[in-house]
Amino acid sequence: MSAAVTKAGPYYTSGSISFSSLRSTFKETSSGSLKISELLRNTTVGNTNPVVPDATENASIPTTTLNFKTSQFRSSIKYYYITQTGTDLNFDIDAQNWNGNLTKNIRKWMYINGTCGSNSSSSSAADFNATAYNVTIDVSGYIYGSAGRGGGTAGAPDPSGEAGGNSLSIVSSSGNNIVVFVRSTANIYGGGGGGERGAQGSNGSPGLNSFFSETSGCGGAPGCPSGYYQTGYNGNCGGCCQTYSCGWGGTCCSQNRQCRYCRLDVATSGGTGGAGGTGGSGRGYNNFSGSLSGSPGAAGGAGGGGNTQAATNGTNGENGASGGEWSQSGGDTGNSGNGGSGGRAISGSNYVVTGTINPDTVKGLYNP
Q1: What is the pLDDT of residues 57-104, one digit of tens each?
Q2: DSSP structural state of residue 295
Q3: Element (H, E) at 20
Q4: Are strands 187-189 and 91-92 parallel, antiparallel or unpaired?
Q5: Cα–Cα distances in Å, from 13 out to 20, 25, 296?
Q6: What is the DSSP letter of 66?
Q7: Per-residue pLDDT tens for 148-160?
Q8: Cα angle at 209 between 208 and 212, to 5 degrees?
Q9: Looking at the chain, which runs of residues are DSSP E strands?
């Protein structure tokens, strides 16, 4: 991380202090009249461009004309600047060295000249959360929100895709005059949402294995074995159970052989449906140029066979949906969730956005 503090000042660390110099430094004009009242330290936080601002460095400058002295302007300042360069993750703007000036009316600039990113959609790439007055966040560099993870991937929701992360978050509920100035070279991009996990495939139809049994007996057949059901009965299925000598010298049957026909049906399982593929990651700082595609669904399981009716295989799982491009929602599938929503370019409250705003500089919602 690299964030350097500079100031318009400090002025008059040594030497004489003339009224003409004070006029040039604080009123920012080389001619015209100058009243002592104009050189008093202005402490009104609603003043957006004070001549002599309230600042920690200006504490010795009086707010009334009583005992006014030019020597009270020693080491005074007019403006306050912090410049970010290099690469920072989750850059905390209000945590920088503002020297207690955020709640004072001195005009302050935060220059984002480097890159700010995030690897988690729950954290903005750059964040400002403080009561502050007269702050301009001047962006000529890059602020990239995190990619939303695909549904069903490690740490992500299931089946829905994870929302993309916000780029710049600003919350200053009681501040005033907080401005985001977008330069033509800026990239302020919300992260893309993760794709939804694919639906599980359908289970295959069950099959049927059939087993057959027969019982027989003289004058009546025993019942079917346990679990079997009767499919037919024959009262004379051939053969005699008992014979005797007929009166004419022949052989007669005293009883007929009877047969009972039985069947046992055992269902076999259809193949299980294949698992749906995981959703693809959205576009983001942590997926700047990688694939957005979801993974393929798994193959359906094989059916359990059957000699009467064969079980069918399960169908393949649905492919996971693709993640969204910068600030776009992830894709939906036939599952019960949805793709993750796209992250905002700028989120929060109590700020205005100005400068060069176009599809190249800002991707995602940005108004409060």
Answers
A1: 999 999 999 989 999 999 999 999 999 999 999 999 999 999 999 999
A2: P
A3: helix 19-22
A4: unpaired
A5: 17, 14, 69
A6: T
A7: 999 999 999 999 9
A8: 130
A9: 2-7, 79-85, 87-89, 91-92, 107-112, 115-117, 126-129, 133-139, 142-144, 168-171, 176-182, 187-189, 207-218, 229-234, 240-245, 251-268, 346-349, 352-355, 362-363
CA distance 359 to 144: 14
Buried b (16+ CB within 10 A) or exposed e, 12-26: beeeebeeeebbebb
Paired sense of beta strands 207-218 and 251-268, if any? antiparallel
Place of tokens 């403080």: 130
Q: What is residue 22's three-state secondary structure? A: helix
266 contacts: CB under 8 Å, gap ≥ 6: 208, 209, 210, 211
Locate 59 and state its tokens.
């504490």
Would you list the DSSP string of 219-236?
A: TSPPPPPTT-EEEEEES-
Instruction: Decide: 87 and 101 in contact? Cβ < 8 Å.
Output: no
Cα angle: 288, vertex 291, 297; to 5 degrees: 145
Q: Is 70 helix (H, G, I), strand (E, B) or coil?
A: helix
Give 19's DSSP letter.
H
Cα Dmax for the chain: 161
Phi, psi of 313 (to 5 degrees): -70, 155
SS3 42: strand
Bond prior to 159 in cis (omega within 30° of 0): yes
Find the helix or strand (DSSP H, E) in which 21 lies: helix 19-22
* Distances, alpha carbon 263 to alpha carbons 25, 219, 235, in Å: 107, 22, 18
Count, residues in the chain: 368
Predicted model pTM: 0.87
Reduced to 3 states, what is the DSSP secondary structure of residue 348?
strand
Which tokens belong to 164?
């993309």
Tokens of 279: 């959703």
